């Protein structure tokens, strides 16, 4: 299994936006600038969020896991966005009910059915409210990546 | 009769992977002989007449002849035991 690419350039902090579309646009554009996704990923991930929402209320702060089809992806990678003030994402599996999202984990995945352990570990992050709070408050991007690598690798 | 369980999400590669694994594990634990299929939401209609249960992380507006269970709890851990119980009851029918 190819490893998950994470880089300080893909950790975005102090994001100040009013809508989920703005944060999706910002994060996806950054991933495209870094070459990990194709230009088509940007619109695809926004459209996907409209059809299949990815907001997740957890026992701690709410997260979202926007992602889209692998054909828009160059390299398996994860971008983390920390919002200054949460924005509403519709809850996964719901029609209208939303949740105020503080942390966005934007996923670029390049293969089907072969990333189970990675996804399971990522869901483990969502079930660890202390870790979520840490990711939302830590300033040092190197430490954020190290904390995620600890769990995900 | 062997039950056919559909596990669906928007892409058929992300959240359904988690749910798929969880259900396969449940089936093994409870010695339930089920066929678990991981698919995209858009592929559900193809199984309209052959599936017994749909477990999904996305919203499903269409009506199907089988029960639909929301599986978001497998991702967040919130309420996961209730969801497992619900699935188990359907599979043991």
Stated plainly, the CATH topology of chain B is called Rossmann fold
Strand content of chain B: 15-25%
Helix content of chain A: 25-40%
What CATH first level of chain B would be assigned?
Alpha Beta
How many helices of chain A? 5
Let me know the number of strands of chain B. 4
CATH fold-level assignment of chain A: Mannitol-specific EII, Chain A
Number of helices of chain B: 3
- The order of strands across the largest sheet of chain B is 2-1-3-4
Distance between the termini of chain A: 11 Å
Assign the CATH architecture of chain B. 3-Layer(aba) Sandwich
Organism (chain B): Marinithermofilum abyssi
Domain PTS EIIB type-2 (chain B): 3-93
Keywords (chain B): Transferase
Pfam families (chain B): PTS_IIB
Description:
Chain A: Residues 4-151 form the PTS EIIA type-2 domain. Chain A: Pfam families: PTS_EIIA_2 (PF00359). Chain A: InterPro entries: PTrfase/Anion_transptr, PTS_EIIA_type-2_dom, PTS_SugarTrans_NitroReg. Chain A: It comes from Marinithermofilum abyssi. Chain A: This is PTS galactitol transporter subunit IIA. The complex is a heterodimer of chains A (153) and B (93). Chain A is 38% helix and 23% strand. Chain A has helices at 20-33, 40-51, 116-126, 129-137, 141-152; strands at residues 11-15, 55-56, 62-64, 77-90, 98-108. The mean pLDDT of chain A is 93. Chain B is α/β, with parallel strands linked by helices. Chain B is built from 3 helices and 4 strands. Chain B has one domain (3-91): Response regulator (Rossmann fold). The N and C termini of chain B lie close together (10 Å). Helices cover 33% and strands 23% of the residues of chain B. Chain A binds chain B through residues 48, 51-53, 56-59, 65, 67-70, 91-95, 107, 109, 111-113, 115-116, 119-120, 123, 126-127, and chain B through 9-15, 17-18, 21, 38, 41, 56-59, 70-72, 74-78.
